[in-house]
Each structure stands twice: as structure tokens, then as C-alpha cells.
Specification:
The protein has 154 residues and is α+β, with helices and mostly antiparallel strands. It contains 5 helices and 8 strands.
């Protein structure tokens, strides 16, 4: 183990743990050091769905075949601005092919980790299918997109 002095370091350490792995944490509580054991688990699907909405501004449902169909888009998020529409299918995220919920979970955890990192990418690469056409789209983070729009509105 190693000492963690910042919440960001704690978050990064948790992201490197494996499902089923037991972690021992020493925490300061009630005037003394206590040892707490936690076991890593997968994020439940409803949390993954909430994170997809938070980071990508869309709601996804399992599609027919590979990928996830977009059922709703937030109009003020980059996806809508760049022409993605409800009914499109997201086939991949940041190089990860979405064949099921496990891949979607891993992709959203990677996005969350990237956004928490000091070296954040500030973009998400999507492969989107509309009808027979596939598009590769680089979406900026919501924060970067909002800052850009505010600069251009002046």
C-alpha cells in the first residue's frame, strides 16, 4: 500500500482495483486509525446508464445486434450539436466495441477515469451507425464544449 493524500489519487487507486479484489484501507476516524476492508464490484447498470447520460448526454438501450441504440439526447450536449440523433446506434466508444453491457461499463469507467485524470483527453471517440452508414465522431467533454460555446457567443 501507499499513502493517499488527495481525493483524486484515491479515485485513481480505486479504478485500478479488480472486481472481487479485497482492498484494505486505513482511515482516520474518531481520533484514531481504523482498518476497513472493501471488495471491488462492477457498477450496476443503472449507475452506468446515469454516467452515460452525464458524460455523453444520451440515454442508451440495447440494440438489435451490436451496439446500443440512442433513445434520447440532451439538446445542450455535444452529441446533439454534432448531428447525432435519437435512433442512431453507438457501436464503439474510445476504441472499445460495444457488444454488451460489460463493454459499455468498461467504456464509461474509462471515460470517468480520463475525466478525473490531470491528463484528461477531454473528448470521447464514438463509432455511430445510422442506417447503413458508420461515422467516427470525436465529441468534446461537456465542460470543454460549454466553454467553447460561451466564448463564441460573445
Amino acid at each position: 500500500g501507499h499513502r493517499i493524500d488527495r481525493d483524486r489519487s484515491f479515485f485513481e487507486a480505486l479504478n485500478t482495483s479488480l472486481v472481487g479484489q479485497t482492498l484494505e484501507l486505513e482511515v482516520w476516524r474518531d481520533g484514531g486509525v481504523k482498518t476497513v476492508r472493501v471488495v471491488g464490484t462492477d457498477l450496476p447498470n443503472h449507475i452506468v446508464n446515469d454516467l452515460v447520460e452525464q458524460f455523453l448526454g444520451m440515454k442508451l438501450v440495447p440494440g438489435v445486434g451490436p451496439g446500443f441504440k440512442i433513445s434520447e439526447l440532451k439538446p445542450d450536449y455535444p452529441a446533439a450539436f454534432f448531428g447525432i440523433v435519437a435512433g442512431d446506434t453507438v457501436l464503439g466508444v474510445n476504441g472499445r466495441t460495444l457488444t454488451g453491457h460489460d463493454e459499455l461499463r468498461r467504456a464509461i469507467v474509462d471515460i470517468r477515469r480520463d475525466y478525473a485524470s490531470t491528463n484528461a483527453r477531454n473528448r470521447v471517440l464514438l463509432v455511430v451507425r445510422r442506417g447503413a452508414q458508420q461515422q467516427h465522431i470525436a465529441l468534446p467533454s461537456y465542460e470543454a464544449f460549454t466553454a467553447f460555446r460561451h466564448l463564441n457567443e460573445r
